[in-house]
Design a protein that fits this description.
This protein is an alpha+beta fold and 137 residues long. It has a single domain, classed as Nuclear Transport Factor 2, Chain: A, CATH 3.10.450. It is 50% helix and 31% strand. The protein has helices spanning 2-41, 45-50, 54-60, 63-73, 75-78; strands at 80-91, 94-103, 108-118, 121-130. Strands 1-2-3-4 form a four-stranded antiparallel sheet.
């Protein structure tokens, strides 16, 4: 019985450590996304570009092209007003943070933010719009 209690206690400590580690990662990921959202609100594409991963930066080459893509392709991101954080998934080298963004005119859109850890911290490695499921009558 004593061995069982020790095993249960060890499992609890391991589980608690994992939860705390994910909470720390979540806080850093949210800070990264918040930083980019604030930059977009200020229409500071140079600052917003800094939150993108090297892969994304390489795809666009410069902040002006990146800003144009966001403005035209992701208007809710470009005109974001609030961010609500939903589930965070650890997929190994990439983590996915689901968010709901509200734009300045009251529209809502859900996105998955693909995140990668770099030496300098978390960076955004892609964004995918999450389509609402079709609802039949």
């Amino acid at each position: 019985m004593r061995v069982f209690a020790i095993v249960v206690a060890m499992f609890g400590m391991i589980w608690a450590t994992a939860v705390l580690a994910q909470d720390a990662e979540a806080a850093e990921i949210e800070a990264t996304i918040n930083g980019q959202m604030e930059a977009f609100r200020a229409k500071d594409v140079d600052a917003a570009f800094e939150f993108a991963s090297p892969m994304i930066q390489g795809m666009f080459g410069n902040s002006a092209r990146f800003g144009t893509m966001v403005e035209q392709g992701f208007p809710t991101v470009w005109n974001n007003e609030t961010v609500q954080y939903l589930e965070l998934s650890d997929l190994g080298p990439r983590w996915v943070q689901r968010v709901i963004l509200r734009d300045g005119i009251g529209g809502f859109q859900m996105y998955d933010y693909m995140m990668v850890r770099m030496a300098e911290g978390w960076r955004i490695d892609g964004v995918a719009e999450v389509k609402a499921p079709d609802v039949g009558a």
